[in-house]
Specification:
Shape: elongated
Helix content: 25-40%
Structural class: alpha/beta
Order of helices and strands: HHEEEEHEHHEHHEH
Distance between the termini: 10 Å
Number of strands: 7
Number of helices: 8
Strand content: 15-25%
Length: 259
């Protein structure tokens, strides 16, 4: 059987288009009036989503696998966009190092998730896989900040996700629109929706799970990806740690096994 693992993401705008007609029907039913479901005009956005779904099925992808949600299989991706270009930092759990307990110190910590050294408790060590700066093309530099931020995530996935089969990638971005697009697979913006659906399709093709979490601007500066997005490659990544509880809290709501 063939299936599209992103589930109903491709139908989100179709549901939104039908909602007013459905609400009218339910309101009349509440008054004891019976009426047929009114016709709904398919917008260009709805047609685009349905065409995407059809094309996805024709590519014979989406036969889901049961992902092993295990912090030791985690990939941590930090992305940022500035006026100059994109910053991309990729880490993975160091399976050769067992859980270690580290004590909180007086270092500045930006977030309660604390992938920074000042976190306390048992943590998994994270090692650097890749850190790089990418200059915008002329057309990309003219896009909105939301498109640029989501493009950074897309660029990272296109470059690295061939090796992510069966793994979970936790994306850290300071752009809330990007968090929503990655997690829900769609957006009211046609440009963002196109990128979001591409990300969902790649997860099907390569068999991994992408989950986005909002990171504060301060944490981006402390971690160093903010500087990478401004072509300052002198920044040194801190000694990252990952709390298993943080991983489970943010990944579990988006992980539903399917066959």
């Amino acid at each position: 059987a063939r299936a599209v693992a992103p589930g109903r993401a491709f139908l989100r705008r179709a549901y939104d288009a039908m909602l007013p007609a459905y609400a009218l029907r339910m309101a009349n039913a509440g008054r004891g009036r019976r009426m047929r479901m009114p016709s709904v005009v398919a917008t260009l956005e709805v047609i685009s989503d349905l065409q995407w779904w059809r094309d996805a099925l024709q590519r014979n992808i989406g036969v889901s696998m049961l992902l092993e949600v295990n912090p030791s299989r985690l990939i941590s991706l930090w992305t940022d966009a500035s006026g100059w270009g994109l910053g991309i930092s990729l880490y993975e759990a160091d399976v050769d190092k067992p859980l270690t307990a580290i004590v909180a110190d007086d270092s500045p910590s930006a977030d309660a998730d604390a992938l920074l050294p000042s976190s306390a408790g048992e943590c998994y060590a994270m090692r650097v896989v890749s850190r790089r700066s990418v200059r915008y093309s002329a057309s990309e530099g003219e896009e909105s900040s939301n498109v640029r931020e989501l493009t950074a995530i897309q660029r990272a996935c296109h470059r690295h996700d061939a090796d992510w089969a069966g793994r979970v990638c936790l994306v850290r971005t300071d752009n809330t629109a990007s968090v929503s697009c990655v997690n829900h697979g769609t957006s009211p913006s046609p440009k963002l929706a196109a990128i979001a659906k591409d990300l969902k399709l790649r997860q099907c093709e390569h068999g991994y799970l992408l989950v986005a979490v909002h990171a504060s601007g301060k944490s981006m500066i402390l971690e160093g990806t903010d500087r990478l997005s401004r072509k300052d490659e002198r920044s040194i990544a801190p000694d990252f740690r990952l709390r298993p509880a943080f991983f489970e809290e943010h990944v579990a709501p988006w992980w539903t096994p399917s066959v």
